[in-house]
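Discussion board: Methods & Data

I've been asked by a reviewer to show the raw model output for two of the constructs in my manuscript, not just the figures. I'm not sure how much to include, so I'm pasting the format here to get opinions. Each protein appears as its amino acid sequence followed by a line of discrete structure tokens. Is this the kind of thing reviewers expect to see in a supplement, or should I convert it first? Here is construct A:
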Amino acid sequence: MTGKGLAKADGKPRLRPVMFVGTCSDAGKSILSTAFCRIFRQDGYRPAPFKAQNMSLNSFSTPDGGEIGRAQAVQAEACGIMPHTDMNPVLLKPSTDQTSQVVLNGKPVGNMSAREYFRSGNKAQLFTEAVNAFRRLDASYNPVVLEGAGSISELNLRDRDITNMRMAREVDAVVYLVADIDRGGVFGSVYGSVMLLPEEERRLLKGVIVNKFRGDVSLFDEGREMLRQLTGIPVVGVIPYFKDIHIEEEDSVALETKAVSAGSGKINVAVVRLRRMSNFTDFDALERDGRFHVYYTDEREEIAKADVIVLPGTKSTIADLQVLREEGIAEAIVQAYGEGKKVIGICGGYQMLGQRVLDPDRVEGSLTEAEGLGLLPLVSVMQGEKVVCQSRFRYKDYDELCEGYQIHMGRTFPADGAETGAPLVMLDGGETEGFRLNEDCWGTYMHGILDNPVVLNDLAKDFGVSAVTDFHYRDFKQRQYDLLADKVREAVDMDYVYSTLCE
């Protein structure tokens, strides 16, 4: 369906693409893109998210078996549509401080160092792929909501950028600049970001949105006018700082604000903080369930205080496993299990719980083997072909149908002479997945398994708290998108925004 055909079908005018860029990283581009995705949906449009290139260890599987950044999956959910690889055609997943796996159109195409990626001649091809992905989205959705990356004024990266103003120019997007006032220096960051742009790009900027303002926003009225006079661009909104709306985040910066120690009066769940931890959104539902206190730690003393210990996913299983051993964390987990604590492994953490992890083809890095924690009688082997899929399953012996997704490059097998256990889940197609040693120790490749109420209820039943909750995380997320949209509507001149999109 063409864009014009769609506009006629839904009775809405065809809107120009809109892009949210930032003065810096973590300015709020993702959250505002999510808010506008929801606002456009509420207003009767059919929006879709897009980010040409993303760098994140928090990813998500699309229904057709592709992989995209978690932020675009969240934004698709806010739009009320299924995620698609066109929404994030280039995804970089760091595996070391200098190397990333490159995922193109949902499929891994190899590992590259930062120098290889930014200096090689492949950026022209990647930009072409990104533009093609955008065009496909633009033919079916109205409008496409683009998200930039980092700062728009990194002069040393300008000729290699495929995400920010180069993409905006290519698709003739209306651009809004997001500035984080909570960091300080908002006048310098906005003025510098605008003035460092060439004139042809500056003309695309239609407004500034000041984000994370603490206190009475009317106190910034003078500041709004000063910024307009300095840059010639109006401040179209001042978003108040808020902590009462919870949207899943993909940036590891979010971990800095989470609890790091055990609490009292709840079931303490220690998520082991790994160097290359991935998909930490696996624990968002657990954090919102009032029966649990979730904290993230790499301290042996805090692990010892936990009732439940979770080894999460990682992009570098063997390297992170070595760190756990060197710092005594592996020993602390094994000791805690021996003292009756529950131990769970998800994805890379599932591999760690086994006897050995092998990487004969050096898929992850230079190390080819590591000894696991030995709690599960399993051996994992890294392989070049990545498993990416969404899954429906039944957990243990329960009848409820659950949902999750898998993203991993390893396969896990019973060790020679291993004691028997039971599969953790039965997939909708009849296959089994995961391993359950007993009620206190299990592992799975299933991301999102803890989003399912039956799993949380099962986890809580042995701790003397209510074993049943009516909390449904998926319903909770939908309410949060609406709350976010309401907050942004109150703070932004939406009439002005729509006027720029209809030009």
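Construct B, same format:
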Amino acid sequence: MKELLKTFLFCLVAALLVAAALRFDNAPQSPQALNDEGQLFYPAFTDPQAPKMMEVIDYDEATATARPLKVEFRRNRWVIPSHFGYPADAEQRLASTAAALIDLRKDAIVSDRADDHARFGVIDPLDAKVSSLVGRGKRVTLRDASNATLADFVIGKPVEAKAGFRYLRLPGQRRTYAVKTDADASARFQDWIETDLLKLSAADIRKIGIRLYSINETFGLVENRETIVLTREDGKWIAEGGGSPKKSKMDGLLQALDSLRIVDVQAKPLGLSQDLKTPEGIRLSPDSILSLRQKGFFVTPRGQLLSNEGEVTVETANGLLYSLRFGEVASGGTTGPAPPPEGQKETPAAGKPASQPKGEGERRYLFITVGYNEERAEKYSGGLPASGRGPTLERELRNRFADWYYIISGADFQKLRPSRKDLIQ
């Protein structure tokens, strides 16, 4: 009797389990839970002017490091917090990037497996739980004025044999999609700033002085002196002391000045910046002296500012005199150290360049100053009244240059300081 009761109970339990399984299998499924193709990623994101912050995080597989760049609307202007709050020329680019991300749809599901993320290049560049150094994508995040997330994507590789499509994933989700998009969210600092640094054109340059020297820091000596002075007369360039510049080298020098680009910046100490914005110039505060020396710039007892790798002066038709001084090798990274809290000055050690082998590609610190002289403007005006633009531009540029140590590429560094042997024929 007991065995019969056991058999009955087993059969009853089995019947209940089968009924439950049938009930589950026959339950209606929501097709949207399985297939969301064609849906918008962020239906509430409809205004391309709504983003007030964008962060782009790219990944450099060669160095296995994430490279972040953030652009933010702060105190009625666009700035780049990841680069010491440097002013950004961002409004148009950000709006076009936002417009490209607004209407993104889930065009096609390609995988629901996390193991496929590396193959499609959609591993989150910030995901520390994933050990893979390859297959990481570019993370793009847009936020509004209240810091609410408007959109957040990991953008991966182009889709094979499908032009205009890329693999894309939402952070924290496994599903990967193929999405039609032309969104160009750049993490390059150069893509977000004013490109015309010096605000001069080659046609306006009237005189160039190249002083090639270096500082022997051990003995406090200026070594390897060589000076080249070039003047423009009747549309032709001549060299002081005889000879004329080689056309290819002169064109390269003029082009480098006309289109000088910076690849990075570091903030000057607050006191040094304030000094440079006043006519009195640099005062010898300990912070200023230490900061200058770390970047390869030295103030002599007579108040003259010298640089580790010489300098170039440029006189223009509107009476401006630019001084470009070349300092130490800058570190090879793209972001530099973290910026100090807003309103505080940089600590003396911040921004000290790491050691880097010398070579053609080495980046250099550049210290720029500018001045205006009315007699110079009249001299280059050809007997006509000076344009009057010079003083206004001088004030604008002086205030801009005062805050920053600029960093230029090794290629521009070489073009801006040719030797007499290479330049003069």
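Answer (T.O., handling editor elsewhere):
This is acceptable in a supplement if you add a one-line summary per construct. For B, something like: Residues 53-192 form one domain.
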